[in-house]
Amino acid sequence: MSDTAIIPHDVEPHPLTGMYNGKFGLWLFLASEVMLFGALFSSYVLLRTGAPEGTWPRGEEILNWKLAMLNTMFLITSSVTMVMAWAELKMNRLGKAKQMLAITFALAGAFMVVKYFEYSDKLHHYQVELVAPMMHDGHEVMRITGHNVVNKEGEDVTIEPDAHGGDANAKHAPITIERSNVKRVTTFGPAHSTFLAVYFTLTGLHGLHIVGGMVVIGYLIFAADRIWKWNHEKLINRVECTGLYWHFVDLVWIFLFPVLYLL
Amino acid sequence: MGGSSAADMQHHLKIYYRVFGALAVLTVITVVVAQVGFHQEWSIATAVAIALLVASIKGTLVACYFMHLITEKAALFWILALCALFFVVLLAVPVLTDHESMGRAANVAVPPVRLHDAAAHKGH
Amino acid sequence: MSGAHAAHSHAGHDHGHDHSHGHELPFWRKYIFSVDHKVIGVQYTITSLLFLLFGFALMWVMRFQLAYPGQPIPLIGKMLGASLVDSTGVLIGNGYNAFGAMHGTIMVFLGIVPLAVGGFGNYVLPLQIGAPDMAFPRLNMMSYWVYLPGGLIMLASFFTRDGAAQSGWTSYPPLSVVNIGGQTWWLIGMVFLITSSLLGSVNFIVTTVQLRVKGLSFFRLPFFVWAQLVTSFLLLLAFPPLEAAAVMQLMDRVAGTSFFMPGGLIITDVVQNQYSGGGSPVLWQHLFWFLAHPEVYVLILPGMGIIAEVIANNTRKPLWGYKALVYSAIFLGFMSFIVWAHHMFMTGMGTTLSTFFQFTTMVISVPSIIILTCFIISLWGASIRYTVPMLFALSFLPMFAIGGLTGLPLGLTASDIHLHDTYYVIGHFHYVVAPGTIFAMFAGIYYWFPKVTGRTMSSLLGKIHWFFSFIFINGVFMPMFFQGMAGILRRQYDQSYQLHGASAQGLSLMASWSAWCLGLAQIPFIINFFYSAFAGKKVGNNPWEATTLEWSAPSPPPHGNFATVPVAQCGPYEYSVPGRKTDFLPQNPALEA
Known about the structure:
heterotrimer; B: mainly alpha; 2 domains; 3 helices; 65% helix; flat; C: mainly alpha; Cytochrome C Oxidase, Chain A; two-stranded antiparallel sheet
């Protein structure tokens, strides 16, 4: 594409760092990414320790840790297949390498599909906070969660409440709550609480990084034959660098999972 | 970085499989420990410490073996380790020392009250 | 920028498909989407100088309001939009705030850093280490083409209905969260700028470490390269927290979260965001200043690097204390990460934290003093050539000293209680950046102009530029210390509202007139810059008789920079070596002839 001059250490490692330019550059980039996610993690810590009693839920109360554990396994497996793609290239097996890349891509896609369901569930699940407690299901409650909310200005709010215990799929008949008793109606989206705000920001940014990685991996699968024909070393290096990025994204999730879902 | 022999790479592959196994096991441990901890009513500090410890072990495995950190120059490993330590310290300092602020008292929920007629108040 | 190329094979680049073997690229790939670090450096320089001029112009308008409060702005008053002026052309409060916030943002993020790092760093660094280009030329091009849209987005916000961001360059919540739409543009623009900066910093570090020629060990590098290296680490590691914070503020503004909005906040009778479990405005400040403090070292370090080169060259002797300079720069970079909360002494942090940051702030003044002292001692016993770059470099020294010393009362918590958010602070940081860094930038432009264009700038116009700039820049900022000590607060669009600082308000007239004259003083520079680029006196490789590697390349260097790959035979400042015919020993033996 461009008429660049010959750059030293494009491919052979530099004696001081032991790395070629691309790898060194990628480690530096990862250092900045650590600062990015680190800033968000530290914000999480500061916000949580500063939150008043009772306003910060445990991850398990709101989020589905089983799905997240599945996602963790998807990512860890994709990390293995990613590094195996590199190993196959080192063993001169282009075909197998492309297969490994494809599996990595597919696992990443599976991760995003699960994420889509998680987000979508949150955004369609509602919570109505009450001014004064009301009787529901035999208890006095200050908030009602459920689906299919009708929330028009000035009119009473109707909601199909979630079942508590027993059959989770049991539909409760819609109930109506007087507008004067309604403090706030919200989905379980980012505006719900600072916990969910942090959750959506952290996992959203992480998800964007997954998508970015998928774009690069997809490109590599598509262009692998051409690059391999031109220069073996170049493809090996590009796959290695993409792998470094991908493992980092996996690493972030390894910390995200317990922090958000289990604590 | 010339091509390695097939035997070399097979050895690498074996390591990757073992690390994968370890990661899978550690993931299960993460979840199990979290459940145990909740039921045993550990303090939040203990739960956090253990969760982060397990996560750090998993992270180190990914970094050392998948990211080949173990084969790079030792200096790189120690620079990263130092940075990680520095970061943890940087995070711990405000959390551990700052009792007065971080908005504890300021964040009391206030009922929705209109103080007085907005029309009587010129904005800005 | 010329078409000549060093002979090179095609194996190392491109994706294997045909590209023109004639080596003549079409215009748009040679000058617009070029991957040559020199073209990119020039692009950054011109763009950032234009942004600097625009940011300066914003200040002229603000200074009119400060000097003549309530008067319609002459000439352009009626032309500005309703978000800025009232119907008679008087600058309104929100307009003043918009100009103030954008002045700071544009000068720091669109002006100085792109000039110092993107302009000078890109152009000079590969040449000074003997490299044919940056390690990642295409990434380099992307950096510029992400910077430019980011800057344009920032400027475009002026033309929205409510106008540009108005919450200070620091964008403190809760105001920034509830404020007008321009703030969202500001945040988006910042994401672009931060991305550009990150790409650039990776490039600089890899280039400096991996692409040095044979013989150029780390302790033979010109101090300019060290300064750029430390700067790049600061940019790499300090910017991401601001990016995270910008995303969080965007979420607060757009997605209804309350990361930074505290519970119980009341704005014009309405309680805001009370449900989300309590955010923290102070969290934004921590994240912002975690970047913004290293950012100020990003602002000064490249300037110090330029001053080092100019002083060594124009004193005809080696810099005094080269190792001290290098270690100080490294230490400064490291320390800059742990002083940030000295911008937050008045937020009620608590005494433990405040004491910690006061201590680190006092410690960080030491390497700065060492660097300045080394420069000053370098003048001792020197054969000073009063060239235009040297005039700027010499005047940098006392100006930076004033800026640095006036920072000390701000770093001490007790005195900061009185001085925080007053004009004293404005005086302090402008002394470091304006007669500090900007003078260093001018020194660099006059110094490297012959290398970039193959022609020299007019020395007479340069001296006129320097003389009047020096006088008037002091006229703008010196009064501010006194105003600050008298109690005049910053970010006040009508100072006459304040009774306690009344005695010092007359100084605003002096500052304003000096600012306008300072603007006029740039005219000789602008004329000189453009005229000399086309019609200045032509020169060869090394008009300044300098030692560093860039002077062994032709002026201007061709694509690939050096006809034969240079080697470095000695340190960077071997001037007045005893027993030699000439008074300098160049690093590249090929230059000795």
